Every structure is written in structure tokens, then in C-alpha cells.
Amino acid sequence: MNPSSPQLDTLPGVFSLLLSSTRRGARFGRLLAVTELRSWGMPSSITERAEQIVAELTANAVLHGRVQSRDFRLGLSLSPAPRTLRIEVTDARRDRMPVPPPGMSTARPAAACCLSPSSPTAGELCPTRRAARPYGRRRIFRPCTRRTDPANRPDNVFDQGKSVALRFSRRAASPAAPGSTVPGAWSVPFPPSDILAAHSKWLYFQGLEHTLRERHPELAHRIFFNPGGPFFYLKVDLSGESGVALAITRFGNTETWAILDPQLDGEPSVWAPSTPGEVLVDSLAAHAAAHLAGVPVASPWRWHQSERSDMTDLADLLTDSGVKVRRVVAGNGWFAYGPRHEPKLGLIESSRGHHLDAELPGGVLVRVSIKPNLGWTAHVHTPEWNAWGRIDLSRALTGQKRPVPGLPLASTSVERIAEVISGGFGAWAEVRPWNPFRGYSQPSPFGFNHVDAVLAQLPPLGFNDLREGVDGALVSDSHHVEWCERRPKTPKNLLKPELERMNGLAAAAGEDAPKRLILITNCGLSRPAASFADQAKAFVFHLDPDTGQLDPLNPRAQEALPPWEDPRKHDLELW
Fold it and tell me: Where are the beta strands (DSSP E) in 513-554?
């Protein structure tokens, strides 16, 4: 051992366990090794080094030594003289044992945790089959009624899809005295997968408790971890028996993290299962500190977000101006909605961008969004319309209309957006969307005019300079409109080369500056073509030949559409 290596000053210890040859088993072995070393009183410097070694060895055992229905073994042993920590990982490839160098002994050491026959208590494992069960009922394990001959015992008793019966029999170390009795053998069903899963959660919660105490020492005397009961939870006591708790909740078949307040009258803070532990404990500490101080939860935690962004800053500004912010969706798109006794899980994909829902007097709802391609967009929903209408942010801020939907992020500030939204209809003045977007309905059952159908749908989306030209053609000062109608025998999707050709025609159509492409077609679009359309800032729509409805074919066109869902559909009901 080199001089810089830490020294071991703990009592001897031995630990050994079989783990499944999966990534989950490798992760569980690493967590288990750290917990065991901490229980031995090992210094943090040695524990960190050992954690890296165990992670590397278990990963190699899972990736390179995996055998179907076989487990690998993790062993830790601590010897006092010389002070040495031994880490052993044995993979399942017994047919490929390492070849020792010349001169090294080939004797295989005995297992450190093996019980000798003369010990007072001996353990024996034998596999059993799982009893057949109908769908929807609980698992039933058939107890083992026979002993397995050690000579015929399988190499790995923790087989996938089987349970294990753990038998304990007490053997006397010396001959029994006359008249004395020796207790008989007994067996109990032992499902290793369920036990390991529960123990893995227990270890993770224990790690969260340790992280919470380290990152927030001012709350250390209030932290309580419940290791038993029907479920685990990490709690910060407030007063009496009330507190803020972090637990794993289930919505249907999905498990998520949730932070619950003591009154249970607010919206729970729901987080994805992959959320880092540091984010969870910081959110728990922020909610607890707010309750202790009697103040609102600090931003961005009050909006169930882990980092500040334009959306959280906008929510703070609107709240300061008296506007009720209903929901903020930025990095965390998980939320609960529906009845309180049986809430449902809502999930908003990150590809839809960030948005904020605010409520103005009179039941007017406003959704402000930041789209990846279009920038700032805003839409309004009123009770009398029962539909969404577009707010022209460009005209409200600068007095000029833009020929495309959205407003670039660099052209305005969050403060200016907050002023427009909090001002209500008075700030929008002439840009009030009197005609909400309701789609397109055919004027006659005998057909429709394609130009009229497009003009009825694209200008309300923000294509303000689109109009009908000579001979029924669609013209625009900033866009070039192309029509592409495929016959039934031609391929169904437009390919990238065809879209590149049309984009070149659109660029050449501009006199002073290149024009952007708006493509109306009756066929589909390949993925490379859709990706190129976004790069070229083009909008591609599919025109239904039967109904005249326009449907977006690339993400940029999808972002131009208004919200379709009822804004109150995903609310959490009051008690």
C-alpha cells in the first residue's frame, strides 16, 4: 500500500451475497457494499474508493460474465492484521476461470461466509416451483417438502422465475443428553426478487436521508425516515405529528416520487422516477423550510421545477402582479390531476416546449409557451368561446404584425411578456382574437375549394400576409406556397431531395430576400424530409381531400397549432 492510501482501523467483517446478473443487480451490489462498509465504521475516503472498485467489478461481471439464470457473487472481507479490505466479485462464467501466472497457487479459497457442518446452525437452500396462479391474484409459493442432495444441487439456486425455500435446522454440537429433545427442521418460502427489490428501496431511502442531512444540516434534528409500515417515506417534522414527506406514490401502474404537504390541500409535487436524489431532497427541504417560516415555497420549487428558467421567472412576475398561475411546465412535466381520492398522472413531453397556464378575472385562461422553433407564443381561452384564440404578441409589443407565428426570444424580455399578459384584454387592445380557431368545416357536402380551406385555417394561426392572388393562387410577401398532389400509384411520402428542390424554388422566388416554404400536400413526409423542413424553417401541412382539414407534417408546423385540450381537464379537484 502506498503512503497516500488511507488506513483501515475497523473491526474485522465478512459479507457475501448472490446478486442477479443484470444492471439492476450491479447497481444494487454497489449500494449494498457502501451500506455495509458504513456499518463497519469505515472512513469515507476508503468507502468512496471501494465503491468505485465494486462498481467496476460488478459491471464487468454483468457485461462480460453473464450467463442466463445464473447470478454473480459479491464478497467483502476485512482483516485486522494486516489491515486489508478484500473485495471479491465472482461472475457466472465458471467455464472460463482465469489462468493464474506461473508459480502462483491454484488452490481455490473457501467461501468466507460458508457455515461448517459442526456449527450450531446450518442453512440449506433448495429451489421450488412457483404455483400456478390466475391473472390478477397474489403470488402463492409452494413450500419445499424435500431436501436436495448437495451433489445434485444446481450451481445457482436464485433462478429466474423460481422461489427459494430457506431451511434452518438446529444441530447439537455434542450428543444430546438423555431425555432431551432436539427441535425439528422447519422451512419458509423466500422470494428473493421481492426481498431484493424492497431492500433496494430501503437502501435508496437511507441514501436520501444521508444526503438530506449533509445538504441541509439545519433540518437534521427534524428528519425522520420510516423504514417499516406499508411503505417507506422520508419526513421532515414541522409541529406535532405533521410534516412534509417524500414518498413513492403509484398512479395506476406507474410509480413516481411525490412530495406531500401536511395539510394535503395543495397540489402534490410529482417527480419522475429518474429524478436525481439531490433534486428530491432539495425540493423536500424547500417545502419544509417554507412551512416552518410561514412563507410561500421559494421559486423554482413552488412551480415543481428544479432549475430557474424563463417560465419560472415569468410565473414569479405574474404572481407579484396578482395573476393566478395555475401550472408551470419546464424541465418537470409530471403532475397529478383528477379526483383527490384517486388522482391520475399527467405527463407532458419535453418536445412540446415549456408553457405556463395563468388565470385572469372572468375565467379567462392564458397559455404562454416557448416553442423550440417559433419562440414565444400566447393563446387565450374564454368561457363564451369554449375554444382557443391566438394573441398576437408582436403587435401587442411593437405594434407590427409578423408574417409567421411566434416571437423570437431575443426580440423581447420576460418582463415585457409579463406586462402584456397581466394587462389582460386592455393591453391586447386591437389584437383581441375575436375569431377563435375552430378548424375548418365544409360549406357544402358536395366538396370544397382548396384555396378557401387553406385561407380559413392558416391566417388565424399567425400567417398574416397570406392571401389569394391571381388565378386562385396563394401569395405571400415572406413565404412561397407550393402545392404537391400525389397520384394513388406514386409513393406515399415525400423524400428529402424533393423537399430540397421545392425549398430552392421558394428561396429563388424572393426578389430582395429569400422566401420561406409553405408546402400543402396530400401525402406524407419522410423523417429526413421533416428534419430538413425544420432546418430550412419551412412549414409542411397535409390537406385532407375529404374534409379540407390541415394537419402538420413537421415539428415546426406542429408548433403553430393552438392548444386543443380543455384547459380545466387536467385540474386537481378540490376537497
Answer: 516-521, 524-525, 539-543, 550-552
Cα within 13 Å of Cα(228), Cβ side = 0
Per-residue pLDDT of 155-212, as tens digits, reads 433 333 333 333 333 334 444 444 444 444 444 344 455 566 777 788 888 889 999 9
pLDDT cut 90: percent of the chain above it: 30
Give the Cα-Cα-Cα angle 254, 255, 260 (nearest 5 degrees).
Answer: 125
3-class DSSP state for residue 68?
A: coil
Q: With 90 as the cut, is the pLDDT of residue 287 above it?
A: yes
> Can you tell me which residue has the cell 444441530?
171
List of residues 6+ apart from 226 with CB closer than 8 A:
232, 233, 234, 235
Q: How many helices (H) and strands (E) does the chain have?
A: 12, 26
3-state secondary structure of 516: strand
Q: Determine the pLDDT at residue 136.
A: 34
Which sign, positive or negative, has the C-alpha torsion 113, 117, 118, 119? positive
Over the stretch 435-493, which tens digit does the pLDDT of each residue have?
A: 667 667 777 676 778 888 898 889 888 898 888 887 778 888 899 999 988 877 676 88
What single letter denotes the amino acid at residue 305?
Q
Q: Is residue 465 exposed (0-12), middle (13-18) or buried (19+ Cβ within 10 Å)? A: middle
Give mean pLDDT, residues 350-355: 81
Asked if 128 contacts 164 with a C-beta cutoff of 8 angstroms, the reply is yes
Using the predicted structure, report yes or no on whether residue 301 has a pLDDT greater than 90: yes
- Integer angstrom CA distances of residue 154 from 67, 90, 137, 161, 447: 14, 17, 30, 15, 74
Better pLDDT: 150 or 368:
368
- Pair 391, 455: CB distance under 8 Å: no
Query: Does residue 498 contact residue 521 with C-beta atoms inside 8 Å?
Result: no
Residue showing cell 439545519: 218
Residue 60 exposed, middle or buried by CB count within 10 Å (0-12, 13-18, 19+): middle
Q: In this structure, what DSSP letter does residue 201 have?
A: H
CA distance 469 to 507: 19
Instruction: List the one residue out of 529, 548, 373, 527 whose CA is nearest residue 462.
Output: 373
pLDDT tens, residue by residue, 512-529? 888 999 999 989 899 999
18, 100, 109, 304 from 113: Cα distances, Å: 12, 24, 12, 47
CA distance 364 to 355: 16
The number of residues in the chain equals 575
Strand intervals (E) in 6-116: 13-20, 71-79, 84-90
Give the list of residues 6+ apart from residue 521 with CB closer than 8 angstroms, or none.
Answer: 483, 484, 485, 486, 494, 540, 541, 542, 543, 553
What whole-number distance in Å separates Cα of residue 482 and Cα of residue 346?
39
- Residue position matching grid coordinates 420510516: 226
Q: Please tell me the distance from the alpha carbon of residue 216 to that of residue 126, in angstroms, as a whole number.
A: 47
